[in-house]
Q: What sequence folds into this?
């Protein structure tokens, strides 16, 4: 008799964004006359076309595949050298990262979930609350948690509350953790961590023999030059951190799919028998066993992001989305709502009007203004009472959301 992975049965609801899409679909079917008015500021999905440099490179790569002399089949599982080196030169110069410590993939969502393959059972996992739900759900699937309680918190996880009092940046806990997920700029709150805060986390990880899983998918949105863009800017992080980066939000690759993991060879973990093993070796083995590499045209397009033209076009995209974030921040603030994030991140994190829960606010925004947001409680119980607005949209749509907001909240 085949049995299933019973850990999946602990997951109470569907994944957050499909659930939102389902509710929007139900609403559109019930109110077809309003369906065309719906503006989606829920999932952080880019709306603007790919940078021209990436499009040109992708076309050229397809032409290479069309010709016997330049045709390519399987590429290296870890990614083509040209892209790994371009990443090191452009994103990690001076930080001691080598090209063979970069592993190209098809997305950070997959990477942050797949990374659990190389860790043992029984690790104490620290997770911020609110949090990108993938970190929690993949730990549930992997059997690293107990059941959820009435508030949706899973037994066995060490939750680190993030709230207005700590600026939505988790304090280093008193308790011990073995693996810590950090995401800066943060999804969903848009908070960023200062150098001092990241230093405290690296010191904690080293003192606890723990590993930081640092999700920097939104690094390109940092505007303040004092905010670190990589955990590897912090002394000592090369021994205790793994970083996740993506082309989804800077290059607009959400549909193209390309990301990478930076895994220094100096990060080791216990083999449970008194020895230490570099995790690089395990991740490389995992990658070559379970993955055949991102496609050649996609990797060529990703490398083109680092050309002079590509950099300028990405900067223009970031400016566009951050201009949207500013408008959304201002509109929510002038409607009298508490506003966070949206300054070094594409997400604006907003307190709900008094008396409304996150899902109440979701329903109100959808039914009264036809605007889709993400309810804060979908990111964890500490997100209750907040909602997230994504600035990934056209300027016209964002201006329209700003026009609709005051009537709704006032
Ligand atoms: C989000 O809206 O939180 C992101 O789009 C999710 C993701 O990148 O997977």
A:
């Amino acid at each position: 008799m085949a049995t299933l992975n019973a850990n999946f049965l602990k997951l109470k609801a569907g994944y957050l964004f499909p659930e939102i899409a389902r509710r929007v679909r139900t609403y559109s079917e019930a109110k077809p006359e309003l369906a065309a008015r719906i503006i989606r500021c829920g999932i952080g999905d880019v709306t603007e076309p790919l940078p021209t440099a990436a499009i040109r490179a992708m076309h050229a790569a397809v032409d290479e595949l069309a010709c016997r002399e330049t045709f390519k089949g399987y590429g290296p599982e870890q990614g083509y050298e040209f892209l790994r080196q371009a990443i090191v030169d452009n994103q990690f110069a001076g930080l001691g990262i080598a090209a063979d410590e970069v592993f190209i993939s098809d997305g950070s969502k997959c990477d942050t979930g797949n990374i659990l393959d190389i860790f043992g059972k029984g690790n104490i996992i620290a997770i911020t609350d609110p949090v990108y739900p993938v970190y929690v759900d993949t730990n549930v699937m992997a059997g690293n948690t107990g059941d959820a309680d009435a508030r949706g918190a899973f037994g066995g996880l060490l939750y680190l509350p993030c709230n207005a009092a700590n600026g939505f940046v988790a304090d280093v806990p008193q308790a011990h953790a073995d693996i810590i997920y950090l995401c800066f700029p943060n999804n969903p709150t848009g908070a960023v961590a200062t150098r001092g805060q990241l230093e405290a986390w690296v010191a904690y990880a080293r003192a606890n023999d723990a590993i930081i899983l640092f999700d920097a998918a939104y690094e390109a949105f940092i505007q303040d030059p004092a905010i670190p863009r990589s955990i590897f800017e912090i002394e000592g992080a090369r021994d205790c951190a793994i970083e996740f980066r993506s082309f989804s939000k800077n290059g607009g690759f959400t549909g193209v799919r390309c990301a990478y993991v930076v895994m220094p060879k100096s990060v080791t973990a216990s083999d449970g028998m008194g020895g230490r093993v570099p995790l690089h070796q395990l991740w490389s083995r995992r990658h070559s066993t379970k993955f055949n590499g991102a496609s050649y045209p996609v990797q060529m397009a990703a490398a083109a992001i680092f050309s002079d033209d590509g950099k300028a076009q990405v900067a223009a995209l970031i400016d566009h989305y951050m201009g949207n974030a500013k408008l959304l921040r201002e509109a929510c603030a002038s409607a009298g709502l508490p506003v966070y994030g949206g300054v070094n991140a594409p997400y604006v994190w907003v307190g709900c009007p008094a008396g409304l829960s996150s899902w109440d606010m979701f329903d109100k925004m959808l039914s009264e203004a036809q605007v889709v947001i993400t309810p804060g409680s979908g990111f964890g119980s500490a997100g209750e009472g907040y909602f997230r607005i994504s600035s990934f949209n056209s300027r016209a749509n964002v201006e329209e959301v700003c026009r609709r907001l005051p009537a709704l909240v006032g």
User: Anything to note?
Assistant: The pocket of D-malate is lined by residues 43-45, 109, 187 (CB under 6 Å). The domain at 7-49+309-409 is CATH 3.90.1150.10 (Aspartate Aminotransferase, domain 1).
